[in-house]
Amino acid sequence: MSKLIATFFVMVVVGSSFWFYPMLPEQMPNEFAYYGNPSSYASKEIVLISLVASVIVVYITMIILSRVMQSKSIYKRFQKSMNDILMVVILIVSASYAGVIANGLGYEVNMLLLAPLGVGFAFIVIGNTIQRFKADANTGIPLSDGHSDLWNKIRRFFSRALFVGGLLLIPCVLFPIKIMFFAFLIILGMTVIVILLGSYIIYKKQYITPSN
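Structure tokens predicted for Immunity protein SdpI:
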């Protein structure tokens, strides 16, 4: 399903680039600053080619990785997870493409809105897919029982932290733009800190025993 969705968005991006090309101005925004407002411009050819190429490169990466994992039985169970993650990347790049096109057509679309939405959805999808990366004796992954147990504990914590962080990031788009920007950075930073500290605490409990 993820590969089908990715294929659809790639076709939409490539096809619409030819449709919108005559309607776009010769100079289009290619960089955004000042809370999401355009700060730099380039020719529409460069902007369109770079955005369309980005989507195609991610899609080709998905196809190649999918075939490699399909051919290797040890990685076969990770195929869907990698496809889901790369599909989210394609959706984010496609949304960036849509925002740039909209700005080029004269609609004021604040690109900063893509930050909490894109990162939030990415965190949620990655958090869900990490649940599939379970280590056990039958996977062929060369881990000892102790390492497998540690990995599974960190994996569960990591996936839950990412999922909750993603859920907290998405509502940031409802705030005024300046508050949204700082709320996004705070939640993103706190998510990273929680993941690092939580993973270390799990590792410490697993391997570092208190001295008598």
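The radius of gyration is 21 Å.
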